[in-house]
Design goal:
Sugar_Degrad_Dehydratases, 12% strand, metal-binding, IlvD/EDD_N, iron, six-stranded mixed β-sheet, metal ion binding, binds FE2/S2 (inorganic) cluster, binds magnesium ion, Glucose Oxidase, domain 1
Length: 577
């Protein structure tokens, strides 16, 4: 354990405490804001990295919540300093927020490093904001606490409840089949997202905030509280109070993000029936802390941990508010018993096991007993073979069981528009056991690995009543998606991965129990195709996209930029003052 901080050893004291010209300048500029020594002298300065914006519906309450966080900081004797950051709205940012996750991570890290701050409250929740903020804060290394946005109210229309994402896919297929008219469609549009807060299904947002909590980075129970619940306001103030003490205790993220806490996060994600995106983000966050956690770890957990959260899309009925009322994440983790290591320290400064005592499940249908799970295993599986030597990811529990072992013809598309046009063609030559393939949709090919992996079922099959088929890509898919979608195929096609060599008409064999994914094409033919392969032209001739393409790692390594990985030695020096 590192030494406690004193007013003299606070990081911010380097800016404000000295009797010299630079400190004079810093103090006088604080006074320009109407502040005085009673605000900053000897007090921890706490950054609020706030991802509020008017392009971020999931964080619309963050302007208010920031006030509550500040109230807590001041109650505990700290001084708040709000620093706005890229808001990264999953719904509005194109081509994919994944292109910008690392940009927000860099922004968070450099905001912390360059400003006079002693600790930080990270305000996020919409999909990529959680891993991005956590990655940046781990690298910055100052005490931090994550304040999750909380899920939005449940959607509803005509007496039925609507879940974010999942129900769009479902009703869109019905609309394509001609079963929903314009008026009903508009009603669904107005009913599916009814308040600030992140998606209330078990999508990427709920998955990642649960992972942050299971890793010990939030206050106990914080990730399950609905955004509009008064308890969320109290939780926000609690984050402010607690982070001030974390500064004095010098409780830094390296004490929290450890092999054991990362594994707890993986176990919890599986039990929640997590988004496939969890794989990429947890690997990336762990790597920032120097913790090795990879695809094989996920596959092993996928075989061992039952899905016990009955939340859509894995479950058939409930949404995040039901999960909260059933006891929330603490209750779920407590129910996982020995699968959770009780020893890792959380932001509370106490072992996570202590924070789980007295946690109770109030509804056994929402949080199932271990002997009555939604799925006994199969939240995630990792397939390998000659199509994915570095792995591909799927969600066996979300696909039609007859597709878990499947062989069929490949229908290969090089771009999303080409694939879209073909699947809308009523005369497409396609059969139910064919394999739809989209490539050049990976980290570099997409670019930014868009969530295109739930390829639309061809209209011809939809009209025959087919609702699932094997789909394969180097893309990701939304956490609210479902179906027999094999994703994150690595290495991706755009860097010459084997997916680039597949041709329409080749046979593709999928064996999920055997964890195999192969094209039945002989090696000599593949060598011929490899020799002919030409890399696609880069998407971005300049700018951030060009930097991203030069430095991004493949999906199995978390898609972080290689220059953001930790390096041995003393690290990045503190700024000269
Ligand atoms: Fe923000 Fe789903 S769009 S969490
Ligand atoms: Mg999403």
């Amino acid at each position: 354990m590192t030494e406690r901080k004193t007013p003299e050893t606070l990081r911010s004291a380097r800016w404000f405490a000295k009797d010299d010209m630079r400190s004079f300048a810093h103090r006088s500029r604080m006074m320009q804001m109407g502040l005085g020594p009673e605000d900053w002298a000897g007090r921890p300065i706490i950054a609020l990295i706030n991802t509020w914006s008017e392009a971020q519906p999931c964080h619309l309450h963050f302007r208010d919540r920031a006030l509550d966080v500040k109230r807590g900081i001041q109650q505990a004797g700290g001084h708040p300093m709000e620093l706005p950051a890229l808001s990264l709205s999953e719904s509005l940012v194109k081509p994919s927020t994944m292109l910008y996750r690392n940009l927000l991570a860099m922004e968070a890290e450099e905001l912390i490093r360059s400003h006079p701050v002693d600790g930080v409250v990270l305000m996020g929740g919409c999909d990529k904001t959680t891993p991005a903020l956590v990655m940046g804060a781990i690298s910055a290394g100052v005490p931090m606490i994550y304040m999750p946005a909380g899920p939005m109210m449940r959607g509803h229309y005509r007496g039925r409840s609507l879940g974010s994402g999942s129900d769009i896919w479902k009703y869109w297929d019905e609309r394509r089949a001609g079963a929903i008219d314009d008026k009903e469609w508009t009603e669904i549009e107005g009913g599916i997202a009814r308040s600030p807060g992140h998606c209330m299904t078990m999508g990427t947002a709920s998955t990642m905030t649960a992972i942050a909590e299971a890793m010990g980075l939030t206050l106990p129970g914080a990730s399950s509280i609905p955004a509009m619940d008064a308890n969320h306001v109290r939780m926000a103030a609690g984050c402010g109070r607690r982070v001030v003490d974390m500064v004095w205790e010098n409780l830094t993220p390296d004490a929290l993000v450890t092999p054991a806490s990362v594994r707890n996060a993986g176990v919890t994600a599986m039990a929640m029936g997590c988004s496939t995106n969890a794989v990429i983000h947890l690997i990336a966050m762990a790597r920032r802390a120097g913790v090795t956690f990879g695809l094989d770890d996920f596959d092993a957990l996928g075989r061992d941990v039952p899905v016990i959260a009955n939340i859509r899309p894995s479950g058939d009925r409930y949404l995040m508010e039901d999960f909260y009322l059933a006891g929330g994440l603490r209750a779920l983790m407590a129910r996982l018993g020995e699968r959770i290591d009780p020893s890792p320290i959380t932001v509370t400064g106490r072992p996570i096991g202590e924070t789980l005592t007295n946690a109770q499940v109030h509804d056994d249908d929402v949080i199932r007993p271990l002997d009555n799970p939604i799925y006994p295993e199969g939240a995630l599986a990792v397939l390998r073979g000659n199509l994915a030597p570095d792995g591909a990811v799927m969600k066996p529990c979300a696909c039609a069981p007859h597709l878990l072992v499947n062989e069929g013809r490949a229908l290969v598309f090089d771009s999303y528009p080409e694939m879209k046009a073909a699947t809308d063609d009523p005369d497409l030559d396609v059969e139910p056991n064919d394999v739809l393939v989209l490539r050049n949709a990976g980290p570099i090919g997409g670019p930014g690995m868009p969530e295109w992996g739930m390829l639309p079922i061809p209209i011809k099959l939809i009209r025959q009543g087919v609702r699932d088929m094997v789909r394969l890509s180097d893309a990701r898919m939304s956490g609210t998606s479902y179906g027999a979608c094999i994703l994150h195929c690595a290495p991706e096609a755009a860097v010459g991965g084997p997916l680039a060599l597949l041709r329409t008409g080749d046979r593709v064999a999928v064996d999920v129990p055997g964890r195999r994914l192969d094209m039945l094409v002989d090696e000599a033919e593949l060598a011929r195709r490899r020799a002919e392969w030409v890399a696609p032209a880069p998407h971005h001739p300049r700018g951030y996209g060009a930097i991203f393409a030069r430095h991004v790692t493949q999906a199995d390594q978390g898609c972080d930029l290689d220059v953001l990985a930790p390096v041995p030695g003393p690290g990045i020096p503190e700024p000269d003052i």
